[in-house]
Amino acid sequence: MSRQALREPRYQALADTLAQEVRTHFQPGEWLPGETHLARRFGVNRHTVRRALDELVRAGLVTRHQGLGTLVVDRRLDYAVSAASKVTHHLAERGIASRTECLHQALTPAPEGVAVRFGLAA
After folding, report:
1. Is this structure's pTM higher than 0.85?
2. Count of domains in the chain?
3. pLDDT value for 82
């Protein structure tokens, strides 16, 4: 396999860079610079910029509006919930820092119906 075949496509490398910038430098509701500006800044053609922006759309980071530009979207989490789901893992994947803090802890007796069903002492 040639070295060329092993390299990451330019649009993907640009998409990775732009995704990081969107996560760290832009707020929801902000517009990204235009395609021409991005092409000049990164030394690529507009087609490469468009492909990179398409990747950001697929990742749910931005929406594109014809004639207006590319808008950063709200960073709400959208993922499948299962017994193995870990919200902190999903946050970290999106570059969002989080912490866990116990605000209150207490033991309370189970309601009678629950206690009976699980054979707990009332």
Report:
1. no
2. 1
3. 72
Per the DSSP assignment, residues forming a β-bridge with 71 are: 31, 63
Residue 10 lies inside a defined structural domain of this protein: yes
Q: DSSP letter for 57, please.
A: H
Q: Are 61 and 26 in contact (CB under 8 A)?
A: no
Tell me the C-alpha to C-alpha distance, in Å, between residue 52 and each of 13, 16, 49, 90: 8, 8, 5, 22
Residue 20 lies in a domain: yes
In this predicted model, what pLDDT tens digit does every residue of 49-103 receive, in sequence order?
Answer: 999 999 999 998 999 999 999 999 986 656 666 767 787 887 777 777 888 889 9
Residue 12 belongs to domain with CATH number: 1.10.10.10
Which residues form the domain of 22? 3-72
